[in-house]
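Why do we care about 3D structure at all? Because function follows from shape, and shape follows, mostly, from sequence. That is the central idea of this module. The next example makes it concrete: a single protein chain, its amino acid sequence, and then its structure expressed as tokens.
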Amino acid sequence: MLDDLFAQLRTATAPAEIEALQNGIWQLWLTSNDVATDKELEAGMRAMQSGDYTIAITHLTSIVLLNPAFTEAWNKRATAHYLRGEYRASLADISETLRREPRHFGALWGQASILRQLGEYRRALDALSRLSVICPHLPGLHEQQLSLREQLENGGFSG
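And the structure:
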């Protein structure tokens, strides 16, 4: 089912269709098929939504330690680290996410965003290039790529 959704995502052009396909993929990613893991993930996400990133990271770390193959725990922990301003820790968790699911569009978008904030424009552009293979018509993607290319041409740090 996941492969079918990704195949459709590659050809989708309408923003509403892209969003619906991404939501379907997220629903599959957010399910571990283990009740205890799903509850721990829910607790971590609730903590993140309430702004308690330390508690969120604690919940998500326990999942990563018990079930390191569950990709979404790595991705959510990357988000919590990002929200705490811990960009290097977030990038490390994004790398783990992408190692397990190279098509993770959320992780690639987040990676590009962080790398751009760090002035590593070439690496950010590389992440967006990988994203464009997965979802070539993602709203805002081409504008971000153009902006990064302009920054590189104007002498921006290439990372």
